[in-house]
Amino acid sequence: MDLMLLRAGGVCTRVPLWLVVPAFLVLLAGAVAAAFFVGQQQREVVEMPAPPVPAAPDLDAAERELAREGVESLASRLVELETRQARLDLRMHTLGDALDLDDEALEPDSGGRGGPLAPDTASDLDRRVAALDNLLERRDEAVSRLDDAVRIDSMEDRMRPGLRPVESEAWVSSAFGYREDPFTGERRFHAGIDYAGREGSEIRAAADGIVVQAGTNGGLGRSIDIVHADGMRTRYAHNSELLVEPGERVEAGQAIARMGSTGRATDTHLHFEVHGPDGPENPANHVHD
Q1: First vs last Cα of the chain: how many Å apart?
Q2: I need a surface site. Which of 122, 144, 232, 239 has the fewest CB within 10 A?
Q3: What's the number of domains the chain is made of?
Q4: 259, 137 contact by CB (below 8 A)
Q5: pLDDT tens digits for range 185-243
Q6: DSSP 56-90
Q7: What sign does the dihedral 122-128-134-140 (CA atoms) show?
Q8: Beta bridge partners of residue 177, listed in sequence order
Q9: Which CATH number goes with the domain that contains 187?
Q10: 260 bridge partner residues
């Protein structure tokens, strides 16, 4: 197959096709190579803008902020500890007054202290907080011991005869000691106190204890014996009615009987005795009217 080419002057030239195709392919390859070369040059010339680099954080400012927060936290903790100290001081002195102790004896030993005066820094506040925390721990222990002492003291007080066994309207009709016997007129020792009052009025335990005797006891009539701490014992005689039984545990102020005149008695009254390890003692030295 031939390719017809029209030349100037209207002359046609016949060119074989096998010559045209290779020439066309050579031209096409040259165009592609030229385009690739130009593209490479353009790519090398164009400058791409660099992405922005984030600014480095202000480390000094961050450290200062952390330090400020640390100081504020320590200062807040210090205020809490000082408030706790004030409360412990008040409680300690209140307990000291109850136990009749000197204020100086209540203070825990804090040891020697001193040093130059310096401004408060985070480390200074940290040391102050640690020292105050340590001191308050020892004060907590001291207050706990004082609480125990007051509680034990209170329990012991309740177990010692000290409460008036009759109502406030009753009065002492015969004191402790030697007196004329109301039946014979002879001088005899009276081992207790007689309280005169209303028939049937309440008779109360003078302290915590255990009933060891409750029933009729000769001239004492219907009587009750109660044992207390430290070998103390109380007796309540001439009652009209008994409200407790042997072996029963009673509390200070608990009603245990009703006033009467049973046994060897001239009229309604309570015969009240307090016995220690060495025998009968004057109830007036124990009972608080």
Answers
A1: 151
A2: 144
A3: 3
A4: no
A5: 999 999 999 999 999 999 999 999 999 999 999 999 999 999 998 889 999 999 999 99
A6: PP-HHHHHHHHHHHHHHHHHHHHHHHHHHHHHHHH
A7: negative
A8: 190
A9: 2.70.70.10
A10: 269
